[in-house]
Amino acid sequence: MNPDPAQGQTNKFKLKGVVVMTTAMLTFITFWKAAAIVLCDFGSSAFYAGGIAMKAIGPAFPWYILAIMIFAGPILLMYIEACSMFTRGGIFPVVRAGLGENAAKAATAAILFDFLLTGPISGISAGQYIVGFINSVLEYFNAGISLNGDGFSILFAIGVTIYFWQQNIKGIEDSSDKNARIIKFSVMICAVLVVWAIITLFIKDNVKLPPLTPHFTEVSLGWAADIPFLKYIGVFGVVMALGHSVLALSGIETLAQVFREIEYPKIQNLKKAALIIFVFALVFTGGLTFLAALLIPEDLMAGKYQDNLLAGLAMSLSGPTFLKLILQACVVAAGAVMLSGAVNTSVIGANGLMSRMAETGILTDWFRKIHPKHGTTYHMINMICMMQILVILFSRGNLYLIGQAYAFGVLWSFVFELSSIVVLRFKEREKKREFIMPLNFKFDHYLIPVGGILVVLVVVALALTNLITKQIATVTGISFAAFFFLIFNVSERMNAQKANDIFEEGHREKLNHIEADSLEKALANLEGSSRILVAMRDPENMYPLDTILKEMKDDDTDVIVLYVKPVEHWRIGKTGMARSVDENELFTNIILTAEKYGHHVFPIEINSNEVFYAISQTAIAAKVKEIVMGVSGSYGAHDQMERLVMAWGVLQNGQPHIPMTARILWEGREVSYKF
Predict the structure, then answer these.
(1) What is the C-alpha to C-alpha distance for residues 158 and 393, in angstroms, rounded to an integer?
(2) For position 142, what pLDDT does the model report?
(3) Are strands 15-22 and 601-608 parallel, antiparallel or unpaired?
(4) Same fold flag, 9-22+510-674 and 29-184+207-270+336-491
């Protein structure tokens, strides 16, 4: 197998061009950063959920907020199971697989309603905390004036929305590092608040636990006030109280969106992220809300601090007023950045959700129209942000009003998605799951998801109760969902041919093609201590890459994925130009495989008139320890290996010896050669 190289033969097989394929989704993050992204949305509800629940159910509200935070645990477990089946998860693919396309459209409309209210409620809440702090300072210095909370909050919320509107049009994406810093700062403030509050509890006399029995107003009873027999069903009051507290769960669905970006091992890291999210939410949202109910005087809690409860907790602690003002400033700073971040997340989330609908062919090209300068889907962003500003104006800064409607999107998105996860246990019982929701029993060939069914029953009960008790939420939520459901159906019919093409072709990843002058420049960004080159050609055969990523146990190995594109109009001897493949499909499948395992890969395309010389040249330039290929349909595995060794020998002629192993992999078999 040792070749007899001819002088100048390497020039005959020189590379014709080098293209590096890049996509933002190939940068994977730690479980801590993933948790931080979710918590910047999910955790922000701590700043307003308590006040809204208190207005609806009275002094018993902290018990029900705490119960909802405990219930977040089973919901997180359900999301982990969904992610174990769908790397690119989220509500649309899960519901479509479980309940069908119409249900998926309805679920998407519900969660879009959630996103469109997340921005306004977060921006207004941030404004309430800021104006509350300003008024506390003015009161401390006996200024004799105070700012109007609603007016300031409306202006602040509109300003924040416009700011992030512009940022998203420019395409400036949210940073996981920024989210991590926000959560670290919030954890420190939370720790100070908890410790100081516990000390205050020991100092204060006659601290009483809140009552367990909720007290409903005419507004919070809704249509239930006209149904007399419901008064005799005690459990209905508990479910209704939980329904008024469920908006504290908003943002938890971000976990499914961030899963594709979590690094290897994905499911284990997802579990760690979910645990961090659960503990943080339990302490930050549930714990601080409970402490606020214990320490803030009842008249102030229902008045001055209703819309900025955690600021009221800071000002109700024992100690000098000046120190409490400093703590309130820190609470307001943490709240402002978390809540403002939630405004941004709502725009990104809604845009991403609608983009996914457009990618499947449901929305027309008008929605996908790209900004001529920034390359963003600006029609979607414009529509989302304009609707959020309208919500802010029509609500007149009334947090309770938005909060009542907000729960509709949260609950009905849960109903559809969690029901789909249960249904998929029966529809796709053979599909591999690295994790399943606990509490199951086996019957015949089925694993009956008792735990999942119980979670779904609770969510359905909450959703149905809210339909009766929340008139505003029911009317606006159903109207909005029907409006978007109609848009989806009309748009899909207008886009029928394109939708059919997308269905037949499958998903295509949006890639950036960066041309490089040489292999050395193309490979300059590799940082790992070792490298593996995986040569790929067949979009339907990801087995070689799948095997390598499955075998990898460290993050210090760079995986270069190479596609050698045949040079057009080239023919030598009896060997014609190999058939070119669908590059976009190939690299899309490469990226999907990398996301599945949470490993970074470095996709590269080379134009060459001889595949084995191109592979060898790339391997030498990258100093790889291993070359991996799939078996060719044109050659046998041993013939492939011989051609590779000959090319390697020609290129290594007179050069320092580079130790390297070549492997050809196919289902259940392998041929290897050590150079």
Answers:
(1) 9
(2) 84
(3) antiparallel
(4) no
Provide the CATH number for the domain formed by 9-22+510-674 in this structure. Answer: 3.40.50.620
- The domain ranges of the chain are 9-22+510-674, 29-184+207-270+336-491
- Residues contacting 122, CB < 8 A, separation 6+: 44, 48, 339, 340, 342, 343, 346
CA distance 608 to 15: 5
Please give the DSSP secondary-structure letter assigned to residue 207.
-
Q: Strand, helix or coil at 390?
A: helix
CB 660 within 8 A of CB 627: yes
Query: 408 near 477, Cβ under 8 Å?
Result: yes
Q: Could you count the other beta carbons within 10 Å of the beta carbon of residue 218?
A: 7
Report angle CA 21, 25, 27 to the nearest 5 degrees.
90
What residues in the chain have per-residue pLDDT under 50? 1-13, 24-25, 570-578
Distances (CA, A) of 324 to 61, 306, 328, 336, 354: 25, 18, 6, 18, 44
Q: Which amino acid is at 447?
A: L
> Coil, strand, or helix at residue 202?
helix
What is the pLDDT, as a whole number, of residue 81? 93
Residues in the chain, total: 675
3-class secondary-structure state, position 296: coil
CATH superfamily of 29-184+207-270+336-491: Amino acid/polyamine transporter I (1.20.1740.10)
Residue 635, classified by CB atoms within 10 Å of its CB into exposed (0-12), middle (13-18) or buried (19+), is: middle
Retrieve residue 232's tokens.
């005799």
pLDDT of residue 6: 40
Q: How many angstroms separate the CA atoms of 560 and 621, rounded?
A: 12
The helix (H) or strand (E) run that includes residue 513 is: strand 512-516
Query: Which sign does the torsion angle of CA 176, 182, 185, 190 carry?
Result: negative
pTM for the complete prediction? Answer: 0.84
Residues 6 or more apart whose CB falls under 8 angstroms from that of 24 comprise: 173
Q: Which residues lie closer than 8 Å to 359 by C-beta, 6 or more apart? A: 502, 507
- Other Cβ atoms less than 10 A from the Cβ of 390: the count is 12
* Tally of helices (H runs) and strands (E runs) in the chain: 27, 10
Residue 612 CA to residue 645 CA, distance in Å, equals 9
> What is the model's pLDDT at position 510?
59
Sequence-ordered list of residues with C-beta below 8 angstroms from that of 500, at least 6 positions apart, any chain: 361
139 DSSP β-pair partners: none
Question: Minimal CA–CA distance to 162: which of 204, 120, 201?
Answer: 120
**Separation CA 607–CA 401 (nearest Å):** 61
- Give the pLDDT of residue 386: 94
Which residues on neighbouring strands pair with residue 562, listed in sequence order? 535, 604
Euclidean distance between CA atoms 278 and 345, whole angstroms? 20
CA max distance for the chain: 98
The one-character DSSP state at 453 is H
* Residue 462: predicted pLDDT: 93
Strands 661-666, 669-674: pairing is: antiparallel
Which position has the token pair 């208190």?
54
CB neighbour class for 464 (10 Å; exposed up to 12, middle 13-18, buried from 19)? middle
| pLDDT recorded at residue 461 | 94
